[in-house]
Automatic annotation (TrEMBL):
GO cellular component, one term: membrane
Subcellular location: Membrane
UniProt keyword Endoplasmic reticulum, yes or no: no
Molecular functions per Gene Ontology: Delta24-sterol reductase activity; FAD binding
Protein name stated in the entry: Delta(24)-sterol reductase
GO biological process, one term: steroid metabolic process
EC number of this enzyme: 1.3.1.72
UniProt xrefs under InterPro entries: Diminuto-like, FAD-bd_PCMH, FAD-bd_PCMH-like_sf, FAD-bd_PCMH_sub2, Oxid_FAD_bind_N
Keyword Cell membrane: no
Top-level EC class as recorded in UniProt: oxidoreductase
Region (Disordered): 549-568
Species per Swiss-Prot/TrEMBL record: Prunus armeniaca (Apricot)
Membrane-topology annotation of the record: Single-pass membrane protein
Protein backbone atom coordinates (compact mmCIF):
# COMPACT_ATOMS: atom_id res chain seq x y z
CA UNK A 1 0.00 0.00 0.00
CA UNK A 2 1.50 3.35 -0.98
CA UNK A 3 -1.50 5.64 -1.42
CA UNK A 4 -1.78 7.54 1.87
CA UNK A 5 -4.89 9.46 0.94
CA UNK A 6 -7.58 8.78 3.51
CA UNK A 7 -11.22 8.22 2.54
CA UNK A 8 -13.68 11.11 2.58
CA UNK A 9 -16.21 10.70 5.38
CA UNK A 10 -19.45 12.55 6.14
CA UNK A 11 -19.85 14.62 9.28
CA UNK A 12 -21.21 12.83 12.35
CA UNK A 13 -24.19 14.15 14.28
CA UNK A 14 -23.39 15.18 17.84
CA UNK A 15 -25.11 13.11 20.53
CA UNK A 16 -25.50 13.44 24.29
CA UNK A 17 -22.67 10.96 24.88
CA UNK A 18 -20.25 13.34 23.14
CA UNK A 19 -20.87 15.88 25.90
CA UNK A 20 -20.52 13.20 28.58
CA UNK A 21 -17.11 12.30 27.17
CA UNK A 22 -16.07 15.93 26.68
CA UNK A 23 -16.77 16.82 30.31
CA UNK A 24 -15.76 13.53 31.84
CA UNK A 25 -12.66 15.25 33.22
CA UNK A 26 -14.84 16.59 36.03
CA UNK A 27 -15.48 13.08 37.34
CA UNK A 28 -11.85 12.14 36.77
CA UNK A 29 -10.44 15.07 38.75
CA UNK A 30 -12.86 15.02 41.67
CA UNK A 31 -13.48 11.28 41.97
CA UNK A 32 -11.13 9.05 39.98
CA UNK A 33 -7.83 10.78 40.76
CA UNK A 34 -8.29 11.06 44.55
CA UNK A 35 -9.55 7.49 44.84
CA UNK A 36 -6.74 6.26 42.56
CA UNK A 37 -4.11 7.99 44.68
CA UNK A 38 -5.58 6.49 47.85
CA UNK A 39 -5.56 3.00 46.33
CA UNK A 40 -1.98 3.44 45.11
CA UNK A 41 -0.89 4.53 48.59
CA UNK A 42 -2.66 1.69 50.40
CA UNK A 43 -1.29 -0.81 47.89
CA UNK A 44 2.19 0.56 48.46
CA UNK A 45 1.81 0.11 52.24
CA UNK A 46 0.68 -3.47 51.66
CA UNK A 47 3.72 -4.11 49.47
CA UNK A 48 6.03 -2.67 52.14
CA UNK A 49 4.49 -4.94 54.78
CA UNK A 50 4.99 -7.90 52.47
CA UNK A 51 8.64 -6.98 51.89
CA UNK A 52 9.21 -6.87 55.65
CA UNK A 53 8.33 -10.56 55.93
CA UNK A 54 11.04 -13.16 55.50
CA UNK A 55 11.06 -15.18 52.30
CA UNK A 56 10.41 -18.27 54.42
CA UNK A 57 7.23 -16.75 55.86
CA UNK A 58 6.03 -15.57 52.45
CA UNK A 59 6.52 -19.07 51.04
CA UNK A 60 4.60 -20.57 53.98
CA UNK A 61 1.68 -18.19 53.39
CA UNK A 62 1.86 -18.96 49.67
CA UNK A 63 1.59 -22.71 50.28
CA UNK A 64 -1.41 -22.14 52.56
CA UNK A 65 -3.13 -19.97 49.96
CA UNK A 66 -2.51 -22.57 47.25
CA UNK A 67 -4.25 -25.18 49.41
CA UNK A 68 -7.23 -22.81 49.78
CA UNK A 69 -7.49 -22.70 45.98
CA UNK A 70 -7.30 -26.49 45.79
CA UNK A 71 -10.00 -26.83 48.46
CA UNK A 72 -12.26 -24.33 46.69
CA UNK A 73 -11.93 -26.14 43.35
CA UNK A 74 -12.90 -29.42 44.99
CA UNK A 75 -16.06 -27.81 46.39
CA UNK A 76 -17.38 -27.22 42.88
CA UNK A 77 -20.22 -29.39 41.64
CA UNK A 78 -19.76 -29.59 37.84
CA UNK A 79 -23.42 -30.46 37.27
CA UNK A 80 -24.72 -27.45 39.21
CA UNK A 81 -22.02 -24.78 39.27
CA UNK A 82 -20.88 -22.73 36.30
CA UNK A 83 -17.41 -22.67 34.80
CA UNK A 84 -14.53 -21.61 37.01
CA UNK A 85 -13.04 -18.12 36.99
CA UNK A 86 -11.37 -15.75 39.44
CA UNK A 87 -13.38 -13.66 41.91
CA UNK A 88 -11.84 -10.42 40.61
CA UNK A 89 -14.44 -7.84 39.61
CA UNK A 90 -14.83 -7.39 35.83
CA UNK A 91 -13.78 -3.72 35.83
CA UNK A 92 -10.50 -4.29 37.67
CA UNK A 93 -8.64 -5.66 34.63
CA UNK A 94 -6.21 -3.18 33.05
CA UNK A 95 -7.11 -4.17 29.48
CA UNK A 96 -9.83 -2.48 27.46
CA UNK A 97 -11.63 -5.74 26.67
CA UNK A 98 -14.79 -5.95 28.76
CA UNK A 99 -14.83 -8.99 30.99
CA UNK A 100 -18.28 -10.00 29.83
CA UNK A 101 -17.70 -13.71 30.39
CA UNK A 102 -18.29 -13.15 34.10
CA UNK A 103 -21.87 -12.15 33.40
CA UNK A 104 -22.69 -15.78 32.75
CA UNK A 105 -23.13 -18.07 35.75
CA UNK A 106 -19.72 -18.97 37.09
CA UNK A 107 -17.89 -20.50 40.05
CA UNK A 108 -15.51 -18.02 41.64
CA UNK A 109 -12.11 -18.74 43.15
CA UNK A 110 -10.42 -15.95 45.11
CA UNK A 111 -6.80 -15.32 44.13
CA UNK A 112 -6.50 -11.86 45.71
CA UNK A 113 -3.89 -13.01 48.26
CA UNK A 114 -1.35 -13.91 45.58
CA UNK A 115 0.54 -10.63 45.41
CA UNK A 116 3.92 -11.34 47.02
CA UNK A 117 7.48 -11.48 45.76
CA UNK A 118 8.40 -14.91 47.10
CA UNK A 119 12.12 -14.93 46.44
CA UNK A 120 14.95 -13.13 44.66
CA UNK A 121 17.52 -15.83 43.92
CA UNK A 122 20.75 -14.04 42.99
CA UNK A 123 22.61 -17.27 42.33
CA UNK A 124 20.09 -18.68 39.82
CA UNK A 125 19.18 -15.13 38.69
CA UNK A 126 15.51 -15.94 39.17
CA UNK A 127 12.63 -13.99 40.73
CA UNK A 128 9.85 -16.18 42.10
CA UNK A 129 6.65 -14.13 42.26
CA UNK A 130 2.91 -14.55 42.62
CA UNK A 131 0.57 -13.59 39.77
CA UNK A 132 -0.76 -10.31 41.22
CA UNK A 133 2.69 -8.82 41.72
CA UNK A 134 2.81 -5.77 39.45
CA UNK A 135 5.68 -4.12 37.63
CA UNK A 136 5.97 -1.20 40.04
CA UNK A 137 6.26 -3.62 42.95
CA UNK A 138 8.89 -5.87 41.36
CA UNK A 139 11.13 -3.00 40.19
CA UNK A 140 10.97 -1.47 43.66
CA UNK A 141 12.49 -4.71 44.98
CA UNK A 142 14.99 -5.57 42.24
CA UNK A 143 16.40 -2.27 40.94
CA UNK A 144 18.16 -1.35 44.23
CA UNK A 145 19.96 -4.70 43.85
CA UNK A 146 21.05 -3.72 40.31
CA UNK A 147 18.77 -6.49 39.01
CA UNK A 148 15.63 -6.45 36.89
CA UNK A 149 13.30 -8.78 35.08
CA UNK A 150 14.58 -9.29 31.55
CA UNK A 151 11.35 -7.70 30.27
CA UNK A 152 9.72 -5.00 32.42
CA UNK A 153 6.39 -3.79 31.02
CA UNK A 154 6.00 0.01 31.28
CA UNK A 155 2.85 0.43 33.37
CA UNK A 156 3.18 0.05 37.15
CA UNK A 157 -0.21 -1.70 37.38
CA UNK A 158 0.47 -4.51 34.90
CA UNK A 159 0.63 -7.82 36.75
CA UNK A 160 2.80 -10.87 36.24
CA UNK A 161 -0.27 -13.07 35.73
CA UNK A 162 -1.72 -10.81 33.06
CA UNK A 163 1.58 -10.49 31.23
CA UNK A 164 2.04 -14.28 31.19
CA UNK A 165 -1.51 -15.46 30.47
CA UNK A 166 -2.01 -12.57 28.08
CA UNK A 167 0.63 -10.38 26.51
CA UNK A 168 3.64 -8.40 27.71
CA UNK A 169 6.34 -6.48 25.86
CA UNK A 170 8.97 -3.81 26.54
CA UNK A 171 11.88 -2.13 24.82
CA UNK A 172 14.18 -5.04 25.68
CA UNK A 173 11.98 -7.61 23.90
CA UNK A 174 14.13 -7.47 20.76
CA UNK A 175 16.70 -9.34 22.88
CA UNK A 176 14.63 -11.44 25.29
CA UNK A 177 11.29 -11.90 23.54
CA UNK A 178 7.89 -11.36 25.12
CA UNK A 179 7.41 -11.39 28.89
CA UNK A 180 6.30 -15.03 28.83
CA UNK A 181 9.51 -15.98 27.01
CA UNK A 182 11.49 -15.00 30.12
CA UNK A 183 9.61 -17.38 32.43
CA UNK A 184 11.56 -20.40 33.63
CA UNK A 185 8.76 -22.24 35.47
CA UNK A 186 5.04 -21.99 36.18
CA UNK A 187 3.24 -23.25 39.28
CA UNK A 188 -0.27 -24.19 38.15
CA UNK A 189 -3.35 -25.47 39.96
CA UNK A 190 -5.11 -27.76 37.49
CA UNK A 191 -8.84 -28.37 37.18
CA UNK A 192 -8.69 -31.49 39.36
CA UNK A 193 -6.82 -29.69 42.15
CA UNK A 194 -3.35 -31.01 41.35
CA UNK A 195 -0.53 -28.51 41.83
CA UNK A 196 2.20 -28.91 39.22
CA UNK A 197 5.42 -27.11 38.30
CA UNK A 198 5.82 -26.82 34.54
CA UNK A 199 9.17 -26.16 32.88
CA UNK A 200 10.29 -26.52 29.28
CA UNK A 201 12.08 -29.81 29.99
CA UNK A 202 10.07 -31.65 32.67
CA UNK A 203 7.02 -33.92 32.43
CA UNK A 204 4.74 -30.88 32.11
CA UNK A 205 6.67 -29.27 29.27
CA UNK A 206 3.59 -29.41 27.02
CA UNK A 207 1.70 -27.33 29.59
CA UNK A 208 4.66 -24.93 29.85
CA UNK A 209 4.39 -24.08 26.16
CA UNK A 210 0.59 -23.81 26.27
CA UNK A 211 0.23 -21.30 29.13
CA UNK A 212 1.21 -18.05 27.30
CA UNK A 213 -1.77 -16.36 25.60
CA UNK A 214 -4.17 -18.90 27.15
CA UNK A 215 -5.87 -16.23 29.33
CA UNK A 216 -5.91 -18.51 32.37
CA UNK A 217 -8.06 -21.17 30.67
CA UNK A 218 -5.78 -24.15 31.42
CA UNK A 219 -5.53 -23.74 35.18
CA UNK A 220 -4.77 -21.18 37.86
CA UNK A 221 -1.29 -19.67 37.76
CA UNK A 222 -0.20 -19.27 41.40
CA UNK A 223 3.49 -18.44 40.95
CA UNK A 224 6.14 -18.02 38.30
CA UNK A 225 9.92 -18.14 38.25
CA UNK A 226 11.19 -15.41 35.94
CA UNK A 227 14.62 -14.61 34.54
CA UNK A 228 16.59 -11.75 36.11
CA UNK A 229 19.37 -9.79 34.42
CA UNK A 230 22.09 -7.51 35.85
CA UNK A 231 21.48 -3.80 35.26
CA UNK A 232 23.11 -0.45 36.02
CA UNK A 233 21.79 2.65 37.72
CA UNK A 234 21.05 4.70 34.60
CA UNK A 235 19.81 4.38 31.05
CA UNK A 236 21.82 6.30 28.47
CA UNK A 237 19.09 7.27 26.02
CA UNK A 238 19.64 8.60 22.52
CA UNK A 239 16.79 10.45 20.79
CA UNK A 240 17.11 10.48 17.00
CA UNK A 241 14.60 12.38 14.84
CA UNK A 242 13.44 10.84 11.57
CA UNK A 243 11.71 12.71 8.75
CA UNK A 244 10.32 10.88 5.73
CA UNK A 245 7.39 8.81 4.56
CA UNK A 246 6.09 5.88 6.59
CA UNK A 247 8.17 3.31 4.71
CA UNK A 248 11.31 5.37 5.37
CA UNK A 249 10.37 5.74 9.03
CA UNK A 250 9.89 1.96 9.26
CA UNK A 251 13.35 1.40 7.78
CA UNK A 252 15.00 3.90 10.15
CA UNK A 253 13.27 2.15 13.05
CA UNK A 254 14.60 -1.24 11.88
CA UNK A 255 18.10 0.16 11.47
CA UNK A 256 18.05 1.49 15.05
CA UNK A 257 18.37 -2.01 16.52
CA UNK A 258 18.76 -4.58 13.71
CA UNK A 259 22.20 -4.58 12.00
CA UNK A 260 21.89 -4.99 8.24
CA UNK A 261 24.77 -7.47 8.30
CA UNK A 262 22.62 -9.88 10.35
CA UNK A 263 24.82 -9.70 13.47
CA UNK A 264 21.72 -9.53 15.69
CA UNK A 265 23.32 -11.18 18.73
CA UNK A 266 26.25 -8.75 18.95
CA UNK A 267 25.76 -6.50 22.03
CA UNK A 268 28.13 -3.94 20.52
CA UNK A 269 25.70 -3.41 17.63
CA UNK A 270 22.36 -3.96 19.36
CA UNK A 271 21.13 -1.54 22.08
CA UNK A 272 19.62 -2.70 25.38
CA UNK A 273 16.34 -0.84 24.80
CA UNK A 274 14.48 0.31 21.70
CA UNK A 275 11.27 2.16 20.92
CA UNK A 276 10.05 4.55 18.25
CA UNK A 277 7.20 7.03 18.44
CA UNK A 278 5.62 8.27 15.20
CA UNK A 279 3.98 11.67 15.65
CA UNK A 280 2.76 12.38 12.11
CA UNK A 281 2.86 10.51 8.77
CA UNK A 282 6.27 12.13 8.16
CA UNK A 283 7.85 12.58 11.60
CA UNK A 284 9.13 10.14 14.20
CA UNK A 285 11.71 9.84 16.97
CA UNK A 286 13.75 6.65 17.38
CA UNK A 287 15.07 6.02 20.90
CA UNK A 288 17.82 3.59 21.80
CA UNK A 289 19.05 2.97 25.32
CA UNK A 290 22.06 1.34 26.96
CA UNK A 291 22.57 0.71 30.65
CA UNK A 292 25.10 3.10 32.20
CA UNK A 293 26.78 3.29 35.60
CA UNK A 294 26.23 6.09 38.08
CA UNK A 295 29.83 7.16 37.54
CA UNK A 296 29.33 7.52 33.80
CA UNK A 297 26.03 9.37 34.14
CA UNK A 298 27.49 11.94 36.54
CA UNK A 299 30.50 12.83 34.43
CA UNK A 300 30.85 16.51 33.67
CA UNK A 301 28.77 17.57 30.68
CA UNK A 302 26.29 14.69 30.81
CA UNK A 303 22.59 15.53 31.20
CA UNK A 304 20.57 13.62 33.81
CA UNK A 305 16.80 13.74 33.41
CA UNK A 306 14.74 12.38 36.31
CA UNK A 307 11.57 11.82 34.30
CA UNK A 308 9.74 10.22 37.23
CA UNK A 309 9.00 13.49 39.04
CA UNK A 310 5.31 14.38 38.86
CA UNK A 311 5.94 17.90 37.50
CA UNK A 312 8.12 16.76 34.60
CA UNK A 313 6.83 16.94 31.01
CA UNK A 314 5.19 13.75 29.83
CA UNK A 315 7.75 11.45 28.26
CA UNK A 316 6.27 11.26 24.77
CA UNK A 317 6.13 15.05 24.59
CA UNK A 318 9.67 15.35 25.89
CA UNK A 319 10.90 12.91 23.22
CA UNK A 320 9.09 14.91 20.54
CA UNK A 321 11.48 17.82 21.19
CA UNK A 322 14.08 15.95 19.13
CA UNK A 323 12.13 16.91 16.00
CA UNK A 324 13.11 20.55 16.66
CA UNK A 325 16.42 20.36 18.50
CA UNK A 326 17.88 17.39 16.65
CA UNK A 327 19.55 14.27 18.05
CA UNK A 328 20.42 14.42 21.74
CA UNK A 329 21.51 12.12 24.57
CA UNK A 330 20.59 12.08 28.24
CA UNK A 331 20.77 9.77 31.25
CA UNK A 332 17.60 8.63 33.02
CA UNK A 333 17.52 6.71 36.35
CA UNK A 334 16.79 3.13 35.34
CA UNK A 335 13.60 2.58 37.34
CA UNK A 336 12.20 5.90 36.15
CA UNK A 337 12.97 4.90 32.58
CA UNK A 338 11.15 1.56 32.99
CA UNK A 339 7.96 3.39 34.00
CA UNK A 340 8.33 6.41 31.70
CA UNK A 341 4.87 6.01 30.13
CA UNK A 342 2.93 5.40 33.36
CA UNK A 343 2.00 8.99 34.30
CA UNK A 344 0.56 9.88 30.91
CA UNK A 345 -0.71 6.35 30.05
CA UNK A 346 1.38 6.73 26.89
CA UNK A 347 -0.64 9.62 25.40
CA UNK A 348 -4.12 8.52 26.44
CA UNK A 349 -3.91 10.95 29.39
CA UNK A 350 -4.35 13.81 26.92
CA UNK A 351 -7.81 12.53 26.01
CA UNK A 352 -8.83 11.74 29.58
CA UNK A 353 -7.65 15.11 30.95
CA UNK A 354 -6.98 17.48 28.02
CA UNK A 355 -5.07 19.96 30.19
CA UNK A 356 -3.15 17.49 32.34
CA UNK A 357 0.03 18.00 30.31
CA UNK A 358 0.11 21.74 31.11
CA UNK A 359 2.79 22.92 33.54
CA UNK A 360 0.32 24.24 36.11
CA UNK A 361 -1.62 20.96 36.28
CA UNK A 362 1.54 18.87 36.45
CA UNK A 363 2.94 21.02 39.26
CA UNK A 364 -0.18 21.23 41.44
CA UNK A 365 -2.00 17.95 40.67
CA UNK A 366 0.45 15.84 38.71
CA UNK A 367 1.37 13.91 41.87
CA UNK A 368 -2.04 12.20 41.67
CA UNK A 369 -1.46 10.90 38.14
CA UNK A 370 -2.19 8.50 36.62
CA UNK A 371 -5.84 7.62 37.17
CA UNK A 372 -6.28 3.89 37.64
CA UNK A 373 -7.57 2.35 34.43
CA UNK A 374 -9.84 0.08 36.45
CA UNK A 375 -11.52 3.12 38.06
CA UNK A 376 -11.88 4.83 34.70
CA UNK A 377 -13.74 1.74 33.50
CA UNK A 378 -15.82 1.48 36.68
CA UNK A 379 -17.04 5.09 36.35
CA UNK A 380 -17.68 5.28 32.62
CA UNK A 381 -21.16 3.75 32.35
CA UNK A 382 -22.60 1.79 29.44
CA UNK A 383 -23.00 4.77 27.08
CA UNK A 384 -19.40 5.95 27.41
CA UNK A 385 -18.17 2.37 27.27
CA UNK A 386 -19.91 1.84 23.92
CA UNK A 387 -18.66 5.23 22.71
CA UNK A 388 -15.05 4.20 23.32
CA UNK A 389 -15.61 0.94 21.48
CA UNK A 390 -16.87 2.83 18.44
CA UNK A 391 -14.89 6.07 18.54
CA UNK A 392 -11.59 5.08 20.07
CA UNK A 393 -8.79 2.69 19.16
CA UNK A 394 -6.62 0.82 21.65
CA UNK A 395 -5.01 -2.00 19.72
CA UNK A 396 -1.62 -3.63 19.29
CA UNK A 397 -0.75 -5.16 15.93
CA UNK A 398 2.04 -7.72 16.17
CA UNK A 399 3.58 -7.96 12.70
CA UNK A 400 6.82 -9.30 11.18
CA UNK A 401 9.48 -6.60 11.12
CA UNK A 402 9.67 -6.55 7.33
CA UNK A 403 5.95 -5.68 7.15
CA UNK A 404 6.01 -2.72 9.57
CA UNK A 405 5.96 -0.13 6.77
CA UNK A 406 2.87 -1.72 5.23
CA UNK A 407 1.20 -1.88 8.64
CA UNK A 408 1.85 1.83 9.22
CA UNK A 409 0.36 2.75 5.86
CA UNK A 410 -2.68 0.59 6.60
CA UNK A 411 -3.21 2.28 10.00
CA UNK A 412 -2.91 5.72 8.42
CA UNK A 413 -5.39 4.92 5.67
CA UNK A 414 -7.97 3.19 7.87
CA UNK A 415 -7.63 4.87 11.28
CA UNK A 416 -5.35 7.94 11.14
CA UNK A 417 -4.20 7.45 14.72
CA UNK A 418 -1.13 9.34 15.95
CA UNK A 419 1.14 8.99 17.84
CA UNK A 420 1.99 5.36 17.03
CA UNK A 421 4.28 3.27 19.22
CA UNK A 422 6.76 0.82 17.70
CA UNK A 423 8.48 -1.79 19.86
CA UNK A 424 10.31 -4.86 18.48
CA UNK A 425 10.24 -8.35 19.94
CA UNK A 426 11.74 -11.67 19.10
CA UNK A 427 9.41 -14.54 18.38
CA UNK A 428 11.29 -17.73 19.06
CA UNK A 429 11.07 -20.81 16.91
CA UNK A 430 9.50 -23.13 19.46
CA UNK A 431 9.80 -26.94 19.42
CA UNK A 432 6.00 -26.97 19.71
CA UNK A 433 3.61 -24.95 17.54
CA UNK A 434 1.96 -22.71 20.12
CA UNK A 435 -0.93 -20.25 19.78
CA UNK A 436 1.39 -17.65 18.24
CA UNK A 437 4.30 -18.80 16.13
CA UNK A 438 6.83 -17.72 13.54
CA UNK A 439 6.19 -17.74 9.81
CA UNK A 440 7.04 -21.13 8.29
CA UNK A 441 10.49 -21.07 6.71
CA UNK A 442 11.33 -17.56 7.90
CA UNK A 443 14.93 -18.60 8.64
CA UNK A 444 15.64 -19.21 4.95
CA UNK A 445 14.99 -15.59 3.96
CA UNK A 446 17.67 -14.02 6.21
CA UNK A 447 15.65 -10.83 6.68
CA UNK A 448 16.81 -7.92 8.81
CA UNK A 449 16.43 -8.69 12.52
CA UNK A 450 15.93 -12.45 12.08
CA UNK A 451 18.25 -15.19 13.30
CA UNK A 452 18.17 -18.93 12.68
CA UNK A 453 16.24 -19.41 15.94
CA UNK A 454 13.93 -16.36 16.07
CA UNK A 455 11.94 -14.06 13.82
CA UNK A 456 11.80 -10.36 14.64
CA UNK A 457 8.30 -8.97 15.11
CA UNK A 458 7.09 -5.50 16.02
CA UNK A 459 4.27 -4.25 18.18
CA UNK A 460 2.56 -1.45 16.29
CA UNK A 461 0.75 0.26 19.15
CA UNK A 462 -2.33 2.19 18.02
CA UNK A 463 -3.80 4.10 20.97
CA UNK A 464 -5.87 7.26 20.54
CA UNK A 465 -8.93 8.78 18.96
CA UNK A 466 -8.83 8.31 15.16
CA UNK A 467 -8.44 11.34 12.93
CA UNK A 468 -12.05 11.15 11.64
CA UNK A 469 -13.39 11.25 15.22
CA UNK A 470 -11.24 14.29 16.09
CA UNK A 471 -12.59 16.01 12.95
CA UNK A 472 -16.19 15.17 13.83
CA UNK A 473 -16.61 12.69 10.96
CA UNK A 474 -18.35 9.34 10.84
CA UNK A 475 -16.16 6.47 12.02
CA UNK A 476 -17.15 2.85 12.54
CA UNK A 477 -14.73 1.52 15.14
CA UNK A 478 -16.03 -2.03 15.07
CA UNK A 479 -15.67 -2.27 11.30
CA UNK A 480 -12.19 -0.75 11.45
CA UNK A 481 -11.11 -3.39 13.98
CA UNK A 482 -12.60 -6.14 11.82
CA UNK A 483 -10.56 -4.92 8.85
CA UNK A 484 -7.48 -4.70 11.04
CA UNK A 485 -7.97 -8.29 12.19
CA UNK A 486 -8.37 -9.46 8.59
CA UNK A 487 -5.17 -7.64 7.64
CA UNK A 488 -3.32 -9.31 10.52
CA UNK A 489 -4.55 -12.78 9.51
CA UNK A 490 -3.45 -12.21 5.92
CA UNK A 491 -0.01 -11.00 7.05
CA UNK A 492 0.72 -13.57 9.77
CA UNK A 493 0.14 -11.04 12.51
CA UNK A 494 -1.48 -11.31 15.91
CA UNK A 495 -3.80 -9.24 18.07
CA UNK A 496 -3.28 -9.32 21.86
CA UNK A 497 -6.56 -10.24 23.50
CA UNK A 498 -6.51 -7.54 26.19
CA UNK A 499 -8.09 -5.36 23.50
CA UNK A 500 -11.59 -5.39 22.08
CA UNK A 501 -11.84 -8.10 19.44
CA UNK A 502 -14.39 -8.50 16.68
CA UNK A 503 -13.16 -11.96 15.64
CA UNK A 504 -15.69 -14.74 15.24
CA UNK A 505 -14.58 -18.20 16.30
CA UNK A 506 -13.50 -19.29 12.81
CA UNK A 507 -11.27 -16.27 12.29
CA UNK A 508 -9.95 -16.40 15.85
CA UNK A 509 -8.50 -19.82 15.10
CA UNK A 510 -7.23 -18.60 11.74
CA UNK A 511 -5.17 -16.00 13.59
CA UNK A 512 -4.09 -18.29 16.43
CA UNK A 513 -3.17 -21.97 16.32
CA UNK A 514 -5.54 -24.18 18.30
CA UNK A 515 -3.75 -27.53 18.06
CA UNK A 516 -1.47 -27.62 21.08
CA UNK A 517 -3.76 -25.45 23.19
CA UNK A 518 -6.77 -27.73 22.69
CA UNK A 519 -4.61 -30.81 23.26
CA UNK A 520 -3.58 -29.46 26.67
CA UNK A 521 -7.15 -28.42 27.47
CA UNK A 522 -8.22 -32.03 27.01
CA UNK A 523 -5.19 -33.62 28.66
CA UNK A 524 -5.33 -31.50 31.81
CA UNK A 525 -9.12 -31.50 32.28
CA UNK A 526 -9.69 -27.81 31.55
CA UNK A 527 -12.62 -28.51 29.18
CA UNK A 528 -15.81 -28.29 31.19
CA UNK A 529 -14.03 -26.49 34.05
CA UNK A 530 -12.46 -23.37 32.52
CA UNK A 531 -13.93 -21.36 29.66
CA UNK A 532 -12.04 -21.62 26.36
CA UNK A 533 -9.81 -18.73 25.36
CA UNK A 534 -12.05 -17.72 22.45
CA UNK A 535 -15.18 -17.40 24.58
CA UNK A 536 -13.21 -15.60 27.26
CA UNK A 537 -11.97 -13.08 24.69
CA UNK A 538 -15.14 -12.80 22.62
CA UNK A 539 -16.81 -9.40 22.55
CA UNK A 540 -20.25 -9.09 24.10
CA UNK A 541 -22.12 -10.94 26.80
CA UNK A 542 -21.76 -14.68 27.03
CA UNK A 543 -24.87 -16.56 28.00
CA UNK A 544 -24.50 -19.66 30.12
CA UNK A 545 -26.14 -21.72 27.36
CA UNK A 546 -23.74 -20.41 24.71
CA UNK A 547 -20.68 -21.26 26.79
CA UNK A 548 -21.94 -24.69 27.84
CA UNK A 549 -22.76 -25.64 24.25
CA UNK A 550 -19.28 -24.59 23.14
CA UNK A 551 -17.65 -26.65 25.89
CA UNK A 552 -19.85 -29.64 25.11
CA UNK A 553 -18.87 -29.46 21.45
CA UNK A 554 -15.21 -29.72 22.46
CA UNK A 555 -15.93 -32.66 24.75
CA UNK A 556 -17.73 -34.45 21.92
CA UNK A 557 -14.85 -33.95 19.47
CA UNK A 558 -13.47 -37.38 18.51
CA UNK A 559 -10.25 -38.04 20.38
CA UNK A 560 -8.36 -38.54 17.11
CA UNK A 561 -8.83 -34.85 16.40
CA UNK A 562 -7.06 -33.77 19.56
CA UNK A 563 -4.02 -36.02 19.52
CA UNK A 564 -0.82 -34.27 20.52
CA UNK A 565 0.10 -31.93 17.65
CA UNK A 566 3.31 -32.56 15.80
CA UNK A 567 6.33 -30.36 16.40
CA UNK A 568 7.23 -28.04 13.57
Amino acid sequence: MSDLETPLRPKRKTAVVDFLVQFRWIVVIFVVLPVSFTIYFLTYLGDVRSEMKSYKRRQKEHDENVQKVVKRLKERNPSKDGLVCTARKPWIAVGMRNVDYKRARHFEVDLSAFRNVLEIDRERMIAKVEPLVNMGQITRVTVPLNLALAVVAEFDDLTVGGLINGYGIEGSSHIYGLFSDTVVAYEIVLADGRVVRATKDNEYSDLFYAIPWSQGTLGFLVSAEIKLIPIKEYMRLTYKPVVGNLQEIAQAYSDSFAPRDGDQDNPEKVPDFVETMIYTPTEAVCMTGRYASKEEAKKKGNVINEVGWWFKPWFYQHAQKALKKGEFVEYIPTREYYHRHTRSIYWEGKLILPFADQWWFRFFLGWMMPPKISLLKATQGEAIRNYYHDMHVIQDMLVPLYKVGNALEWVHHEMEVYPIWLCPHRMYKSPIKTMIHTEPGFEHHHRQGDTHYSQMYTDVGVYYAPGPVLRGEVFDGSEAVRRMESWLIENHGFQPQYAVSELDEKNFWRMFDAGHYEYCRRKYGAVGTFMSVYYKSKKGRKTEKEVQEAEQAILETPSAEVDEPLDY
